[in-house]
């Protein structure tokens, strides 16, 4: 039985640590909340609360995600350079709550405190791309390589490479004008959704197997049974070419087939960002929408459902709100 101390916030915090180490997370949360009730500036207790509100094996509910975000805000207010609190809060805003405009503001504030934070730039680039603002995303991406920015770790480099490939391909293609803008109710993307909304997403692996497996079987069946090492090497090279080519083709075909799904996902993101409805009832009742919704995080679904229940349509004048990133500048470095 854990002894409850009632003299100070630090004693409650220590009790919370003991409870957490014992696997009693509910009691640990209770003790940590007692600690901040006595001392609202106990940053360690606030950080523990934010940690305990996130389930170990499942996604947080809307209430827990909101409480976790509030705890992160408390930590940052007390310790502005608490990098983990910035990361957790930003991920809660975007991944769990779908509030992309608030997430952009969040990382903008982080960059004001530490202009050299590469992680904040990467998160900003990803959010702008998710909103379809590819040109602005590409502009921000260039900042990662400015002198004075923090060096990227391996995981950051991989993520940045993927983002760079995506936003560069889209942003530099000035001739393309068909990128889906859900806030425009006349966007052709809505027609594309309706053409496929009664079917589930295309499976890239299944497409690959259906396309490549028969071709490989034909190649093997009609290959000569003898002929030495040269013929064997040729057969292996042919199979390798077919396999790699099939993978690329299957990926491209799956992306084309899944474009309606990507459009619905973006429309969902706009709804949770704006707090207004853009998806019509017929699409919301479709097989594709329901499938995609079940794969969104718990808090996201709960928040989206509350927006749908409120029933307020998006304004024709609505556009994503983007902070003024130009006001952020790195300190100058002069050689001595």
Task: Walk me through the structure.
This protein is mainly alpha-helical and 336 residues long. The protein has a domain of 122 residues. Helix content is 65%, strand content 0%. It is built from 16 helices and no strands. Helix 4 crosses helix 16, helix 6 packs antiparallel against helix 7 and helix 10 packs across helix 13. The termini are far apart.
Can you describe this structure in just a few lines?
This protein is mainly α.
Q: What structural keywords apply?
A:
about 325 residues; mainly alpha; 16 helices; disordered N terminus
By oligomeric state, this entry counts as single chain
Query: What portion of residues is helical?
Result: 55-70%
Total strands: 0
Q: What is the tally of helical segments?
A: 16
Order of helices and strands: HHHHHHHHHHHHHHHH
Helix and strand topology:
Elements: H1 9-21, H2 25-38, H3 43-52, H4 62-78, H5 83-96, H6 100-113, H7 118-130, H8 134-141, H9 154-171, H10 189-196, H11 204-221, H12 228-257, H13 259-274, H14 281-284, H15 287-294, H16 298-310
Helix pairs in contact: 1-2, 2-3, 3-4, 4-5, 4-16, 5-6, 6-7, 7-8, 7-9, 8-9, 10-13, 11-12
